[in-house]
Amino acid sequence: MAAKKKMPQDKGANTRSSTRSLRDGAEKELTRSRKISTDLTGQTPEQLNHELQVHQIELEMQEKIS
User: Fold this and answer.
1) Are 21 and 29 a contacting pair, CB within 8 Å?
2) pLDDT tens-digit readout, 38-57
């Protein structure tokens, strides 16, 4: 009996679904973290930018560890 050919999967749909679920998870985490995050109001745009850059580097470091 001949092996069945696998139909090509729509990788674009898979990627969109994965991206959507990552975004949904990030939105939920943001909602939770807002309750416990430090108050960033009153900071200058430069200070906020610095905080974002530090956080981005932290995430990149975590990704390398994983």
Assistant:
1) no
2) 677 888 999 999 989 999 99
